């Protein structure tokens, strides 16, 4: 997945907002909270960062092409970075981005959750 595909997919989710921040990273939010980031590699290759469940965090931390996300994981947050963005992993990445969106949405106040519909 490239950044254009990433932005198109994240933008297709309900009530999302987009901003460039943190060194020109593509940042996607729901209810004002970050759920996905495109960017942050030292070698300028595509990398995508997202929130996960504890189970998926433990699983993906051991998978090739994934690692605990810089900055987030160092602070105990369950965020993963996919740094190997081969086209064969696009469907898998879309699943994890959707899950991140869902997890972040569930953490919003009820008022904000209701306003997303």
Q: Would you write up a description of this structure?
A:
This protein is of the alpha+beta class. It has a single domain (3-109), classed as Aspartate Aminotransferase, domain 1 (Alpha-Beta Complex), CATH 3.90.1150.30. 34% of the residues lie in helices and 25% in strands. It has four helices and six strands. It has helices at 3-11, 54-61, 90-106, 110-115, and strands at residues 16-21, 25-30, 33-38, 48-51, 66-68, 79-82. A six-stranded antiparallel β-sheet has the order 1-2-3-4-6-5. The longest helix has 17 residues, at 90-106. It is globular, with a radius of gyration of 13 Å. It starts with a helix and ends with a helix. The model has no long low-confidence stretch (mean pLDDT 90).
Give average pLDDT, whole number: 90
Give the overall shape, derived from the CA principal axes. globular
Strand content: 15-25%
**What CATH architecture would you give?**
Alpha-Beta Complex
Measured distance between first and last alpha carbons: 28 Å
Question: Structural class, from helix and strand content?
Answer: alpha+beta
What is the β-strand count? 6
Helix-strand sequence = HEEEEHEEHH
Number of helices: 4
Work out the helicity level. 25-40%
CATH class: Alpha Beta
Low-confidence stretches: none
Lateral strand order in the biggest sheet:
1-2-3-4-6-5
Number of domains: 1
Radius of gyration: 13 Å
Characterize the biggest β-sheet.
Answer: 6 strands, antiparallel
In the CATH hierarchy, the third-tier topology is known as Aspartate Aminotransferase, domain 1
Organism: Colwellia psychrerythraea
Protein name: MmcQ/YjbR family DNA-binding protein
InterPro entries: YjbR, YjbR-like_sf, YjbR/MT2646/Rv2570-like
């Amino acid at each position: 997945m490239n950044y254009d595909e990433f932005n198109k997919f994240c933008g297709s989710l309900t009530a999302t907002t987009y901003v460039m921040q943190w060194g020109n990273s593509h940042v996607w939010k729901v209810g004002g909270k970050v759920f996905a980031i495109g960017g942050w590699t030292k070698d300028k290759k595509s990398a995508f960062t997202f929130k996960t469940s504890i189970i998926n965090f433990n699983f993906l931390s051991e998978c090739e092409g994934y690692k605990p996300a810089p900055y987030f994981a160092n602070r105990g947050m369950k965020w993963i970075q996919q740094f190997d963005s081969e086209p064969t992993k696009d469907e898998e990445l879309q699943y994890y981005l959707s899950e991140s969106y869902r997890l972040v949405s569930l953490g919003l106040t009820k008022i904000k959750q209701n306003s997303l519909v």
